[in-house]
Amino acid sequence: MNLVSLEKKAICLGELLIDFVSTVSGVALKDAPGFEKAPGGAPANVAVGLAKLGIETYFIGKVGRDAFGEFLRETLARNGVNTRFLTMTEKAKTTLAFVSLTKEGERDFVFYRDPGADTLLDQSDIDEECFRGSGVFHFGSITMTHEPSCSATLKALNLAQKYGYLISFDPNLRLQLWKDPEEARFRMRQGVERAHVLKVNEEEARFIAGSEDLEKALTFLRERYHVPLIAVTLGKKGCLILCGKERLEVPGFSVATVDTTGAGDGFVAGLLSSLYMFWKDIRDGKDIPRDALYHAARRANAVGALTTTKKGAIPALPTQEEVEVFLEGQVA
Fold first, then answer.
1. Are 12 and 59 in contact (CB under 8 A)?
2. CA-CA to 93 of 20 to 30 Å: which in 87, 143, 210, 260?
3. What is the DSSP string of 225-282?
């Protein structure tokens, strides 16, 4: 039996889809004149980001046995992600999302997912072989919107816990994909409860906690769920890191933004890859050196910023060398 390598290993589970990105920025989706095809899906973006940053990465998910599904499988493999545990189905088409960046800088989304192949990920698709060893397991909430993919996600979480993985969760709030907000909040809290690393933006933190006050929301998440590391992305302002007794506000970088799709996923990849030496310490709730947290957050901000300089998510995610060159040109 060939076991999965244990060195710098990451497993990402979730949706893998096609983002059709508006050819013109600054317009509402209904006014977009055309679209460009780009591979995407938040956990898949993180998988590619980690692979490009030197982490051996495996992806668990499901796509349609169609042209888009083949394109996505080839894209992950071409970017260094192991697709051994990516399955294909003839029961549904590959999920599609149409995306436009409005004048206010917000993303306008429409999903074609009724059902999408990603929602058909089944418990039988979750192979324990993938989890043998240890490393980091990253997932989001989008596979928790429907069955059977919700049960498959929970099975994978159980295996990640069984083998002692550092568990990373990004709720990736997309209310239009849920039956109702309360179900979304319940499922996201299930994810937070199991996470060692939680990445949220301000809106997500408030939503999960059920509080409009950001500080109260973060206090709720820390005291209720005891998450060892919480990273709050603040857009152009950078990020806030809460880890043990440490609280760091790390400024972002000014870049020529083309498309913000995948910026948060790039941030996650940058953060996890930078903290590789501390994965077990974070999992066990041990203190992490302040300078290591700052370095990881700064690098995560850089990856996120660079991801916004090109259209689409996966094509824009930077390599390790590109990140280092970018940081060398910045004032610390």
1. yes
2. 260
3. H--SEEEEE-GGG-EEEEETTEEEEE-------S--TTHHHHHHHHHHHHTGGGHHHH
328, 298 Cβ separation under 8 angstroms: no
Domain 9-317 of CATH type 3.40.1190.20: yes
| Span 212-264, pLDDT tens digits | 999 999 999 999 999 999 999 998 899 999 999 999 999 999 999 887 889 99
Residues near 323 by beta carbon (within 8 Å), at least 6 away in sequence: 53, 270, 299, 302, 303, 306
pLDDT tens, residue by residue, 264-308: 999 999 999 999 999 999 999 999 999 999 999 999 999 999 999
Whether the predicted model's global pTM rises above the 0.70 cut = yes
* Catalytic center residues: 262-265
Q: Are strands 107-112 and 96-101 parallel, antiparallel or unpaired?
A: antiparallel
